[in-house]
Specification:
- With 173 residues, this protein is of the alpha/beta class.
- The protein has a single domain, classed as 3-Layer(aba) Sandwich (Rossmann fold), CATH 3.40.50.
- It has four helices and four strands, in the order H-E-H-E-H-E-E-H.
- Strand 1, helix 2 and strand 2 form a beta-alpha-beta unit.
- Helix 2 packs across helix 4.
- The chain is globular and about 45 Å long.
- The N terminus is likely disordered.
């Protein structure tokens, strides 16, 4: 009888643990105008984050629309989401903004004017990626956007793998 009760308690606690939501970490990608690289990164983390990450993007300045060639690329790669839009990083400093676990700036260098401190003390890093400029011919621009997409997809896959493993190790300890 005591063994049955212990097994029942173990089964109940195990099922309760399985129902607990996993720890979701918030990631903010920042680039100068939030119409290209950071939008790509947000879309890709939403694909590859597997429910462990919530992705956001922002920029120093905003544009009325996502760059049309980026929109086409994301649709073609099946990662376009209607909620992808240009936002200012100032939105993420407000008291009601979600707290970030990671702030990742993108490009040749971090955008000018970023705060040195963010609410919640997130890990701040910079990923040097190819600038997806649309200044050349249509073919050159498309190649640049695809190159940036591929670079970001590779980094995001590694980022999710490393940070998911770290949280699994911490939970097992």
């Amino acid at each position: 009888m005591a063994t049955e009760n212990a097994v029942s308690r173990l089964a109940l606690s195990s099922s309760a643990e399985n129902k607990m939501p996993p720890s979701v970490r918030n990631v903010l990608f920042i680039c100068p105008d939030n119409s290209r690289a950071s939008i790509i990164a947000e879309a890709l983390l939403k694909r590859w984050g597997c429910g462990s990450f919530q992705a956001f993007s922002a920029g120093n300045t905003t544009t009325p629309v996502v760059h049309p060639m980026i929109h086409q690329l994301l649709v073609a790669q099946r990662v376009w989401r209607p909620e992808l839009k240009s936002k200012s990083w100032h939105e993420f400093l407000r008291p009601d903004a979600p707290r970030m676990d990671f702030i990742i700036s993108l490009g040749d260098r971090a955008p000018d004017g970023l705060p040195s401190r963010w609410p919640g003390n997130p890990r701040v890093m910079h990923w040097r990626v190819s600038e997806p400029l649309g200044d050349g011919t249509a073919v050159e621009s498309a190649q640049a956007f695809r190159r940036t997409f591929t670079e970001l997809e590779t980094r995001i896959k590694l980022f999710t793998l490393v940070n998911t493993r770290k949280s699994i190790r911490r939970a097992a300890a």
